[in-house]
Design brief:
Elements (H helix, E strand, L loop, with lengths): L6 E5 L2 H4 L12 H4 L2 H4 L2 H6 L1 H15 L6 H12 L4 E5 L5 H5 L4 E3 L2 E8 L5 E3 L19 E5 L9 H10 L2 E5 L11 H7 L3 E6 L11 E4 L2 H12 L3
Parallel strand pairs: 1-2, 1-7, 2-3, 7-8, 8-9
Antiparallel strand pairs: 4-5, 4-6
Helix pairs in contact: 6-10
Bound molecules: 2'-O-acetyl adenosine-5-diphosphoribose.
Amino acid sequence: MTDIQNIVILTGAGVSAESGIDTFRDGGGLWEQHRVEDVATPEAYIRDPDLVHRFYDARRAAIQTKVPNAAHDALARLDAAWKGEFLIVTQNVDDLHERAGASRLLHMHGEHLNAWCTACDNRSHWTGTLIERPPCPACGLPGYLRPDVVWFGEMPYRMEDIYRAINRADLFVSIGTSGAVYPAAGFVREARAAGAKTLELNMEPSQGSHWFDEARHGPATALVPAWVDAMLGR
Ligand code: OAD
């Protein structure tokens, strides 16, 4: 691994699963408990905002009771030690990567702990509920705060920054994601086209597993610390 300078890591729900946060598509996952069309689209929010707020208010409360696991810790350790360029692109809306200490991190699907005011476009740190339509801390208008989470049909955040990093990467690693949702599912092909080595760490082969140079399968809390130790020569 001595030829590796720049690393991009994509993470998904599987990295937080062992912290007790449900994934989306595993048996009993979130999208078996709720229909995407009911809670995770702009149309759902227009149709039944209370249902959408109840869903995200519960998720926001739940993540605050969870703690980072050994996979988050290992990635934070790599972030702190790695001298080259480094970026974790997470699809997760929890804050476990940053609570573990990662700083070179970008949330492409938004963050549970942010509220977005659609009146003034301000984003504020938010730990409480939104269903009671609280006023925006910036503009003072009530009724305009929504979860700062990217819904189906909306554009993920920071795509230019992500593609720039991928095109500079020597190594692209995908951790704990099913490869079912684009554009994230296409990053491995972008990385390959740019000449990066590609590695998958996931419980099972993802939908795009065949695109990776190498795939290791098992729980993130075992695979990720072992891989990080190898990267750091320990
Ligand atoms: P998924 O639920 O689709 O996939 C989770 C993946 O993690 C699966 O491939 C599991 O096998 C794997 N997994 C489960 N437990 C694991 C563990 N302990 N260690 C390692 N891997 C494990 O979740 P995502 O791929 O993150 O988007 O889903 C992508 C997007 O779809 C989410 O960001 C969300 C969702 O709809 C939006 O809400 C916009």
